[in-house]
Amino acid sequence: MAFLNLHREKLKQNFNYLKELFEENDISWGVVSKLFCGNRTYLKELVDLGVKEIHDSRISNLAKIKEINPDIQTVYIKPASMRNIEKMVRYADVSLNSELTTIRWISEEAVKQKKMHKIIIMVETGDLREGVMGDHLIDFYAKIFELPNIQIVGLGTNLNCLNGVMPSSDKLIQLSLYKQIIELKFNIEIPWVSAGTSVTIPLMLHQQLPKGVNHFRIGETLYFGVDLFEEKIIEGMHGDVFELYAEIIEMQEKPLLPSGALAANPQGEVIEIDESLYGKSSFRAILDIGLLDVDPKYLIPEDGEFEILGASSDMIILNLGLNPKNYKVGDLVKFSLKYMGALGIMNSSYVDKKVSS
Hints:
This protein is of the alpha/beta class. It has 2 domains: about 230 residues, Alpha-Beta Barrel (TIM Barrel); about 120 residues, Elongation Factor Tu (Ef-tu), domain 3, CATH 2.40.30. About 30% of the residues lie in helices and about 25% in strands. The protein contains 10 helices and 19 strands. The strands form 3 sheets. It has a 9-stranded parallel sheet with strand order 8-7-6-5-4-3-2-10-9. Helix 3 runs parallel beside helix 4. The radius of gyration is 24 Å and the shape is elongated.
């Protein structure tokens, strides 16, 4: 049976690397847990690291964090829907917001629950996902800063999440300037410029992060140790916190090309025939995992001597060539994962989740 393994010590080493990095730069940060899809075992591993602040895009996941440790500050990291306001205010201490109507609803609900709800106003800086346009920001702030039971704790932004726009010193300086303008105009203090995500870490490593940026929201680099500018593992971090193991359930020598009339497969793909492969064969292995669980393009085989040929809903097909490693039925094949691959696996109830030291 296929299973995902989390290496506790490698996760801990990645966490400690980031913790020291942020402390050296006097930066607050929280861990984004949405990759875990609410898996209680994995969430507890985060809590046991000593994490003080956890971010998630699912309210039910934040509720589980509060059950594990109610003292952790929880942050809801997408705009709340009207029908989820009550639960969001109940389980999230902080939320990222960019809609005036929504913030008014949050204020009303926070009054009902007798809670002070903290808000980071998201600002559009070019990637065109969520965020208030910069030239509307002052008027936006003026309409919310006196709402009851609302505390504005930061200005934030997201980059590289939709259109791939990368963070730059200029964009982050602009966000810091917005903060200064609002503070002067309204005679208040906004604690955070929350402009840091995993994709922003390389700016800090190269001393290019503007001093005004003082809050980060980190997921991918914690779990995969990756420098997202150069697509490589950061020295001192681990890229294999997660490993997927899939079992071989069939092993046969078969032709390299299908036979018969070809039409689109269930994924809508039409196979192109390479006529040079007629008459040739190889060993093929079928794994007990498929598209229902993960897109094969996000899998990184540990053994570079085979290739992934394709997948159906419940099976992945490998070309083992002459099978130099002598794989057989029942053997486990190991893969590292890209972020979206791990996310698919975590969201699959058909793949076991395990922890090792």
